[in-house]
Fold this protein.
Amino acid sequence: MPTIHTYGTMLALAAAITWGGSVYLAGRLGIDRRRAAACYFIAAVSMLLGARSFYLLVRGGSASLSVVDLRPVGFDLYGGMLAAAAGGVCAARLLGCNAWRMADAAAVPTALGVGLVRVGCFVGGCCFGRASDVPWAILPPPDSPAFIFQVLANPVRLIAPERIHPTQLYEMAAALLAAAVSAVVLARRALPGQAALLGVAFFTVLRLAILPLRELGPMGTWYGLTHTIVYLVLFAAVAIAAGRSFRRGRFLASRSMRRHVIFQNWWPKAPCSTPPTHRNSA
């Protein structure tokens, strides 16, 4: 009987929810769903290739892993997100779709997908945290990557392993909060691109705060430096794009834009008013 890997299962589930949810919300934003489906498919392929390529780049390559390897291991989140953004923008331009609206439609499903992947990381034991004595620290299972890492660093940990930060759950919570931020912005009829930009900025800040709590191993200094640079560059790009977007109009859309909605029942209808009548003078 074939073995079902939790991480691979959660990765496939996250991909299905992200793609399906994005296509659905794109339709609610007035984008043709067939074009949206093609655009998000290209973005998904770009994300997988970018995540694997950045993983290999940061770690100096791997003899047992290649860019086109189909095994569900060896991915980097932000390498994938940057590649997905580039592929998605190119696909949106080719297909004649509004790239900012496409990004808004994908913001909430993508954040939920990231949360699901982090659950797979937690169950699988990868992306684990540093040793800690906080009350919610967890004890790594005997066959987990965290336990093996501790034993290789100090054989004494074979009988007395250290508790570690559940950084996978921290990032899951950060992704869910980012999804909530994007959903609220969408519900308030923000201008195109603002829901996606604020969600990415919010998650980037939280993930940068979580990074020092992760156990990065021998590549820790290089890994931490490269990711910090990527986070800062990405955050600066988001800030610039957000500034340009906000200058186009108010942060919350005007009344004339409220008819372009996703959640019709979230916004109270404005009371009807009757224009005053004037008597004609004799």
Q: What stands out?
A: The two ends are 95 Å apart (CA to CA).
